[in-house]
Amino acid sequence: MAEKAKKPRQLKKETVREKTEKQTADTAAKKPRRIKRAASTAAKPLKTVRRIGAKEYYLPMPDNKVGRFMNKRRRVIPKYFREAWAELRQVTWPTRRETIKLTIAVFIFATIFAVVIGLVDYGLDKVFKRLLL
């Protein structure tokens, strides 16, 4: 009986992406990030205010023209603020890394623009001093 040649057993190697996903899943399960903790702490009073503001209140009024006009359900928070809050909830905020990149880009642009404006100002100053003096 001829023995079959045994192939060495190959273990599946984890890719870098799989390692990263595994680490992020482990750290997310262990403890929430500081920002998320702070946001949830800050959101608790806002949730209470939102719950109170969502309620409709009925004000009993006398039965006359003014009373019938005013005798409607009223909310504590005006419609403008409710709609503004709804719009803010739809915003996709940039990540920390994107924010840092964009901030650095703004600083670089502002510096280059300031240098260019300074050079143009200096050059025009020299030209007008020679022409006028």
Care to describe what's here?
There is one protein chain. 68% of the residues lie in helices and 5% in strands. It has two domains: 29-91, no CATH class; 94-133. The relative contact order is 0.04. The model has no long low-confidence stretch (mean pLDDT 79). The protein has five helices and two strands; from the N terminus they run ααβαβαα. The longest helix is centred in the C-terminal third of the chain and has 37 residues, at 96-132. With 133 residues, the chain is mainly alpha-helical.
Number of DSSP-assigned strands: 2
Helix content: 55-70%
How far apart lie the N and C ends? 111 Å
The mean pLDDT is: 79
* Number of H- or I-type helical stretches: 5
What spatial form do the alpha-carbon principal axes imply? Answer: flat
Strand content: under 5%
Series of secondary-structure elements, N-terminal to C-terminal: HHEHEHH
Largest sheet: 2 strands, antiparallel
The low-pLDDT segments are none
> Number of domains in the coordinates?
2
State the secondary-structure class.
mainly alpha
| Biggest sheet: strand arrangement | 1-2
Rg, rounded, reads: 33 Å
